[in-house]
Request: fold
Amino acid sequence: MVIKIGGNIIDDENKLSSFLKEFARILGKKILVHGGGKLATRLAGQIGIQQQLVDGRRITDAETLKIVTMVYAGYINKNIVASLQAFGIESIGVCDADGNLIKAHKRVHPTIDYGFVGDVDEINSSMLQGLLEQNLCVVVAPITHDGNGQLLNTNADTIAQELAKAMSSHYHVRLVYSFEKNGVLLNVEDENSVIPQINPASYKKLKEDRAIFAGMIPKLDNAFTALQSGVQKVIIGKAEDLTNLIEGYAGTTIINE
Amino acid sequence: MVIKIGGNIIDDENKLSSFLKEFARILGKKILVHGGGKLATRLAGQIGIQQQLVDGRRITDAETLKIVTMVYAGYINKNIVASLQAFGIESIGVCDADGNLIKAHKRVHPTIDYGFVGDVDEINSSMLQGLLEQNLCVVVAPITHDGNGQLLNTNADTIAQELAKAMSSHYHVRLVYSFEKNGVLLNVEDENSVIPQINPASYKKLKEDRAIFAGMIPKLDNAFTALQSGVQKVIIGKAEDLTNLIEGYAGTTIINE
Reply:
């Protein structure tokens, strides 16, 4: 089970805590990938660093990298671990430089310099499996490295997808993208407009009709990539409804046929 | 081999990098415990949090805890890991909440409220051994937890001592305290006044004569505690001279007889 927790859940102590309580109850081997929330942006503001976004992606200059490393791999990661331990789950928090979990390279783009943003090259499956086999729940922050000592800020949805794919050769893997919405919505203003199932054909049509919120597209692309690489099931939905999500009683299930 | 790196080495990118290069060359199982350096104090200053010290110990209020968690367990820990990976050492960075490595309690003191400062209760030896047996070099940040979800700021010298003690029932352990000085100095102004060996009797005399710098006393107390609990050897000396330290060609060796 690879679960990504994102969106504003991380910024809300109560919501995060009740999510982690539900997460703790899930049986079997677990990987939790978390994003960053707004704390990094707030901290950057406090010390006078301007944040830039292009196409919804953060431009990561050296100072911003420092902040996201501190906030994602330090503050958020360790607080999640401490909470899970309190719920009786032996968990270990890592970034993707740890044990060479994910090697990446600085993004190459013809026109935009993303700064210290990493695109994934390679997963160290055996190290990750070693942790899981030690019965540790692995909590992953989205900071990769290039193998030459450089940390890189990396999209957490992509990391969840890559880890799910890598683990699918060893385990039956379900990938859950959980966030503040009920699922993939037909109307972004209406929480009751959840699309229960999306397959490649309906996805193509939804995109053509511009019926899905643009912010969902990278997540859905990640979902289909995961499915095509052996992940059993991908579910997208509300973090506070985790148990129902996992059982398929809520959210959007992405299928491959 | 448990090595503590502290003092201003952490603040100096070049010194830290050459230390890590030497550290990477050491054979056998390795644990690196790091302190915090001045970055936490600087960051606190930038966002307007006043730091308080009592008897050389930081008083850790909620905001300071947030900062040390970010800086120690995030920025410093992950940059050390990325550097070690670049030197070919598969290493994993953890704080002491990870895998329940060190359970601690909030310090109880009759007159001073230290805030979120932890005193060590218990080490999860089997989890740590599991990581070492996975051939991972373990990089440890001095942030413990109380098992109820609360992170706690903890003295890194003490953590190194506790981990060395815990591992001494499984391995032959040497504990090295490395910092900016050549060793335990008779005259704190004179780097050539290194005391090559200290045993309990000479330590007692040095303390009576007030011949040792007060800041060294907690480190030496930690050293003797470690020796009494089965650690084979404790060495104190200059981080930049790590290879010689380990071989006993430099620094101060603490012995039990």
About this structure: Chain B has one domain: 2-254.
